[in-house]
Amino acid sequence: MKAAVVRDFTKPLEIEEREVPSPEPHQVLVRIECSGLCHTDIHAAHGDWPVKPSPPFVPGHEGVGIVEAAGDQVRHVKVGERVAIPWLADACGRCDFCVTGWETLCLSQHNSGYSVDGAYAQYALAHGDYVVPVPDGVDPMDAAPLSCAGVTTYKAVKLAGARPGTRVLISGIGGLGHLALQYARIFGAETVAVDITDEKLKLAEELGADHVIDARTQDVAHEVQKLGGADAAVSLAVSNASFRAAYDSLRRGGTLVLVALPAEGELTLPVFDTVLNGTKVIGSIVGTRQDLAEVFRLHQLGRTKVIRETRKLEDVNTCFDEVLGGKVSARLVFDMR
Ligand code: NAD
Ligand code: ZN
Ligand code: ZN
């Protein structure tokens, strides 16, 4: 099988020929149909974060494909079923986080395309209990971005408290942001979209953003404060300056939800203002299997639209450059069929 492999944080990925792996008793072997390119894969390949993956490894945590073989302990999915392989490759299933709906915080978790090989390959192994079935009527090319960009922003927008009567700022209308904007609208919020490219600002308008702000030419916080301030802001842009702009856009009692993870991600906050304004600053990491099932259900009902372009896995390195150069309509998806 073909796989894109990170061998060195400073070098391009290599396309390698590998043996198709065999599943352990708790695993499934998935024949990958498509695999989304999340900005996280670029951080992984570059070793951007304090906790680094160990090369050689195969990135990819927006994998969608068909179960080709299953170990004898696998009960919940069957051979022939379409499943998604998300970031949460597995968790312990027993700790207080796992049993209270916070499996994404489990200290014993593994992560697809990071601590275990991911979906930038024609086949991938996954834990039978942690793959999420993709329902009929959801195009696998849409299911791929929904498996990280979708579930992550669905969760973040829920944590933001979006509901009718609230104003929610979405900072960065990329792979994650274009879905965040749609979830905020589904939850009934007034939406403010911020980006720095003409294409993304146009996309935000097409997706129905109530207000669109160009962070290149406009003072984001000033513009949002003129509207009355944001009840919540979801930070999805890979830029430290954007975090502070989002924080400064909040009204009293507002919530900043941090999601993007730049290489040297830092946000300095004034304690006095944060206290007096009763501001909440929270981090949000992906979403649970249940969140992803809800994301697929919303898509099946026609409530969301995935903006994507198709690419070949062989072009992975130019694809990384396209994303970093802001040249992508929203999400790139490798079609491996
Ligand atoms: P992306 O590159 O597709 O989107 C980023 C967007 O931000 C682009 O549209 C870009 O034009 C815009 N942008 C850049 N600078 C800006 C600025 N100053 N103000 C406003 N917009 C700006 O990336 P993505 O795949 O959507 O991922 C975004 C980030 O989220 C990455 O750091 C990724 O690692 C992280 N991420 C976090 C989680 C999580 O669970 N916390 C999950 C997935 C991805
Ligand atoms: Zn991701
Ligand atoms: Zn656990």
Automatic annotation (TrEMBL):
Cross-referenced PROSITE patterns: ADH_ZINC
Keywords: Metal-binding, NAD, Oxidoreductase, Zinc
Catalytic activity: a primary alcohol + NAD(+) = an aldehyde + NADH + H(+); a secondary alcohol + NAD(+) = a ketone + NADH + H(+)
EC number: 1.1.1.1
Keyword NAD found: yes
Keyword Zinc: yes
Ranges for domain Enoyl reductase (ER): 8-334
Enzyme class: oxidoreductase
SUPFAM superfamilies cross-referenced by the UniProt entry: GroES-like, NAD(P)-binding Rossmann-fold domains
Family of the protein in this entry: Belongs to the zinc-containing alcohol dehydrogenase family.
Designated name of the protein: Alcohol dehydrogenase
Species assigned in the record: Kitasatospora setae (strain ATCC 33774 / DSM 43861 / JCM 3304 / KCC A-0304 / NBRC 14216 / KM-6054) (Streptomyces setae)
